[in-house]
Amino acid sequence: MARAAIQGRLGDRLRWRTAEVEDRRTESGTATTLVLSVPDWPGHLAGQHVDVRLTAEDGYSTQRSYSIASVPDGEHLELTVQRIEDGEVSPYLVDTLLVGGLVEIRGPVGGWFVWQPEQAEPVLLVAGGSGIVPLMSMIRTRSSIGSRVPFRLLYSVRDPADRLYADELRKGSPGLDMTYVYTRVTPDGWPRPAGRVEPDDLARHGWPPDFEPTCYVCGPTGFVEKAAAYLVLLGHSPDRVRTERFG
Ligand SMILES: Cc1cc2nc3c(=O)[nH]c(=O)nc-3n(C[C@H](O)[C@H](O)[C@H](O)COP(=O)(O)OP(=O)(O)OC[C@H]3O[C@@H](n4cnc5c(N)ncnc54)[C@H](O)[C@@H]3O)c2cc1C
């Protein structure tokens, strides 16, 4: 590709666009999905994220990254934001920014932590907390195109009230197997005691390494580092383990 064309594409993705909140959905006691309308949005791949910039009246400005939860859909984007109690940006996005409100976004960002419809190999998704967001975009994209590529999801949350997209995941989709790992409180009768993800969970609910799945691991840094190390310990090739750390 000619240098000018590359610069043109990059420039378009680096350009800040004004996005309007079209709708809001409560996902849990601490998380909200913002449905954004973004004029001239260039489209995205499942797994990518955007930068969100907020600017106060006195000119102070700050930005954070948020994964895209939705399938590519014209000028519409969905972000799911988990409120961090002492955070600067997330409480504003979850509690204060209402329908009709404006934010600036740029992107899409990221070319490695993506799932593309032409990928035919089995997929293992491993989410910790809000790390489910980009993985949900992959699950939704797979469903929207009628793909039967086998997906498995292991989703670690503190307790049942923290599950995002619970109804949608309960309905499921053909060829998608999933399980939860509860780290603090389990539902009544849940067979696995509460506790952090262990290698055995990934061995039982993932794919054997010789199936050569692509593994996507997303969540807080500590969670991602442990889960990715366990996958490699179990025999998965490091270049098939893709990670995204939320900080
Ligand atoms: C590529 C990428 C994609 C992301 N996608 C999402 C997403 O889809 N949804 C989402 O809710 N967040 C996502 N994040 C995290 C997000 O960018 C912010 O870090 C988060 O919302 C906290 O911002 P804040 O301004 O509220 O907190 P800050 O003011 O930045 O931090 C306040 C305190 O919280 C701690 N903290 C910061 N981030 C986290 C975190 N994620 N978990 C626990 N503690 C934290 C800080 O260490 C600090 O002590 C993503 C991050 C990255 C890098």
Describe what you observe in this structure.
Helix 3 links the parallel strand 7 and strand 8. The longest helix has 13 residues. It is built from six helices and eleven strands. The model has no long low-confidence stretch (mean pLDDT 95). The chain has a six-stranded antiparallel beta sheet. The protein has a five-stranded parallel beta sheet with strand order 9-8-7-10-11, with helices on both faces. The site of flavin-adenine dinucleotide has 20 residues, from strand 4 and strand 5.
Spatial separation of the terminal alpha carbons: 34 Å
Ligands bound here? Answer: flavin-adenine dinucleotide
Return residue spans where pLDDT drops below 50 for at least 5 consecutive residues. Answer: none
- How do the helices and strands follow one another from N- to C-terminus? HEEEEEHEEHEHEHEHE
- Given helix and strand content, the structural type is alpha/beta
What Rg is obtained from the alpha carbons, in whole angstroms? Answer: 18 Å
What share of residues are in beta strands?
25-35%
